[in-house]
Design a protein that fits this description.
This protein is of the alpha+beta class. The protein starts with a strand and ends with a strand. Helix content is 27%, strand content 32%. The protein is globular. A seven-stranded mixed β-sheet has the order 10-11-12-13-14-16-15. A hairpin with a 4-residue loop joins strand 1 and strand 2. The protein contains nine helices and 16 strands. The longest helix is centred in the first third of the chain and has 18 residues.
Length: 364
């Protein structure tokens, strides 16, 4: 497997290509910078591919840091990663800044502490990373909390440790204060792939917020002019996307319908269902990748259940891939229970098939 690794989260920009079979970095670029990531990253990728003797289609997985970090920087890396993964139909995985920083030293230390200092607030954020779990937990910490953490005796690294140099006695690891793509490419190659596009990880609320009462979200029943938008959303969500023609045939069936969610004037999410003999089944629920994690699917699900109840539909069924953690948690939070399992139901590109969980909820 060839992995393209990208990092733009902190005061550096880097790219690397890693050959998992040969277990070596074929090419890498790294440059410290506070700004200019947007101009630097793509040429770095091009240079790495050329030096490694690779064409873009050789990339099997893209690994990108997702934050915490500078707002503009981390979005530059994520945007390029999302675009390339979509164009190349390859795997994409996000790792947080603490994991990326710790990765190069996890071969020598089973557990390390990473401490970074946020430039915008001056606050410290830290986490303990282990080679076994690659823990993703990231926490804001007070100076006193950091001092207690440092007394654990574990190896430490990160941009925040200079403020506590008097407490770091014989354990500081130098040379890896900033993450680098070459440093975490191997670590990312061994992580489990996810179907979801990585989203930016922020530790504070955005400075700009919508004005009170300005609701840009609308829901309505999907109609024939929406078929192209539904097909686009389905293709972004599943390995084998439905065409506009197949969606038209599905919606033409008796009892079939689709509820569409529009955000900022564009179709962002939809749920397609069918009613048979007083019960209903969800055939698909899809959300545009960059809008996931913002409650759009939950809003659709709640609206659909309310509509079905008004029609005296007694029960709602669905199936979901067993490895789709966010979706399983959403359905359970809305009262769905697992009632069965289909072995190897969902095929996966370059991976083993995944079981389908059959879930159901009593409505009336």
């Amino acid at each position: 497997m060839i992995v393209l690794a990208l990092d733009t989260c902190l005061a550096a920009c880097s790219a690397a290509v890693y050959d998992q079979e040969a277990d070596r970095v074929l090419a890498a670029r790294f440059e410290k910078m506070d700004k200019g990531h947007a101009e630097a990253l793509a040429p770095m990728v091009e240079a790495c591919l050329k030096e490694g003797g690779l064409v873009p289609s050789a990339i099997s997985r893209i690994a990108v840091t997702k934050g915490p970090g500078t707002f503009t920087g981390l979005r530059v890396g994520l945007a390029l990663a999302h675009g390339m993964a979509t164009a190349l139909s390859c795997e994409i995985i996000g790792i947080n800044t603490l994991q990326a920083t710790a990765a190069p030293v996890l071969t020598a230390h089973d557990r390390v502490i990473v401490i970074h200092q946020a430039g915008a607030t001056g606050k410290f954020y830290s986490g303990e990373i282990s080679v076994q779990t690659g823990d993703e937990a990231v926490h804001f910490m007070s100076a006193e909390d950091v001092q207690d953490l440092l007394r654990s005796g574990l190896a430490v690294l990160g941009t925040g440790i200079d403020a506590f140099s008097s407490l770091v006695t014989g354990t500081r690891i130098v040379g890896h204060d900033l993450p680098s793509a070459a440093g975490f490419a191997r670590f990312a190659a061994n992580l489990k792939a996810s179907r979801d596009l990585p989203q930016p990880l922020y530790l504070r609320e955005p400075d700009a917020k919508p004005s009170p009462g300005n609701d840009a979200t609308k829901m309505r029943n999907a109609e024939a002019p929406d078929l192209a938008a539904l097909a686009r959303l389905h293709g972004l969500s599943f390995d084998t996307g439905w065409s506009a023609e197949s969606l038209a045939l599905a919606l033409a069936l008796s009892g079939s319908g689709a509820l569409l969610l529009i955000r900022d004037g564009e179709a962002r999410s939809f749920v397609q269902y069918q009613i048979v003999a007083g019960e209903a089944e969800i055939n698909a629920i899809c959300t545009e990748p960059r809008w996931r994690g913002q409650g759009l699917a939950r809003q659709l699900l709640v609206a659909l259940m309310a509509d079905l109840k008004s029609k005296n539909i007694t029960r709602l069924h669905l199936d979901v891939a067993a490895d789709n953690g966010p979706a399983v948690r959403l359905y359970k939070a809305q009262g769905f229970a697992v009632v069965g399992r289909r072995k190897g139901y969902y095929a996966r590109k370059n991976a083993e098939a995944v079981d389908a969980l059959l879930m159901s909820k009593q409505l009336t």
